[in-house]
Write a structure and sequence with these properties.
Distance between the termini: 41 Å
Strand content: 15-25%
Number of domains: 1
Helix content: 25-40%
Number of strands: 11
CATH superfamily: Spore Coat Polysaccharide Biosynthesis Protein SpsA, Chain A
Radius of gyration: 18 Å
Structural class: alpha/beta
CATH class: Alpha Beta
Order of helices and strands: EEEHEHEHEHHEEEEHHHEH
Shape: globular
């Protein structure tokens, strides 16, 4: 039986580093409009913006998305989507962050591939080759190590795998914060208790591994730019003006 797919975009205004970020203008459009447009271009299913702010909702509706008005109290975007998709039908939900205006539609399609091969899979994500040697030791760059089946063994801000010998030439992979969940697991995800490793690393996905669930990782050339600060927005603007494909920029 064919599984139905939907894209969820959690978006809120209360960013401490970049207030009103979803409505910041990028190349003449609010940033959330760029995210919605790229999600629509992926052409995998309906696009639902989950937000607690009517201004974001208005832009999302004008851009062609559906809107779910969520509660204010959610601690994470996944929690916000869990509330939304308790009321919206879909077998697989793709979580596209609201601050990824240059996300490649091909990456959105790629994150759901493992579900076709494993009917028991509950969660999937992406990774791309580390771009610079110094990124291996940069705590702002999240790394992931996978097993032979393409399942995540661990995510860390530390250097993994650690190059114990200078002759070691292991390929290191950088995690891309794009997720897909089965509907049932998304409802469970928001109820999983935090774990010491996740709290220490400040990586929410570690609680999934801690509780014994698998995360499939599709590796490829999935470079993008997340907008966390006004400086990131200026970098994204420069790329759009230059009309070049997005590349990874810290």
């Amino acid at each position: 039986m064919t599984q139905s797919i939907a894209i969820g975009i959690p978006a809120r205004m209360a960013s401490t580093r970049f207030p009103d970020k979803p409505l910041a203008l990028l190349h003449g459009q609010p940033m959330i409009a760029h995210v919605v447009n790229r999600a629509i271009q992926a052409n995998v299913g309906p696009v639902v913006v989950a937000t607690d702010d009517q201004r974001i909702a208005d832009v999302a509706l004008d851009t062609g998305a559906r809107v779910f008005m969520s509660q204010h109290h959610h601690a994470s975007g996944s929690d916000r989507l869990a509330e939304a998709f308790a009321h919206v039908d879909a077998d697989i939900i793709i979580n596209v962050q609201g601050d990824e205006p240059l996300i490649d539609p091909a990456a959105i399609r790629a994150v759901i591939r493992p579900f076709a091969d494993d009917k028991h899979l509950v969660m999937a994500t992406l990774a791309h080759p580390l771009q610079r040697d110094e990124d291996l030791h940069d705590p702002n760059v999240v790394k992931v190590v996978c097993n032979a089946r393409g399942r995540a063994m661990y995510f860390s801000r530390a250097a993994i795998p650690f190059p114990r010998r200078q002759t070691d030439n292991h390929q290191a992979w950088q995690h891309v914060g794009l997720y897909a969940y089965s509907r049932e697991f998304l409802m469970q995800y928001s109820t999983l208790q935090d774990c010491p490793q996740g709290n220490s690393e400040q990586l929410e996905q570690l609680k999934v591994l801690y509780h014994g669930y698998e995360i499939a990782v599709t590796c490829g050339d999935f470079h993008t730019i997340g907008v966390d600060t006004p400086e990131d927005l200026r970098r994204a603007e420069a790329l759009l003006v230059a009309r070049v494909p997005p590349v990874f920029v810290k």
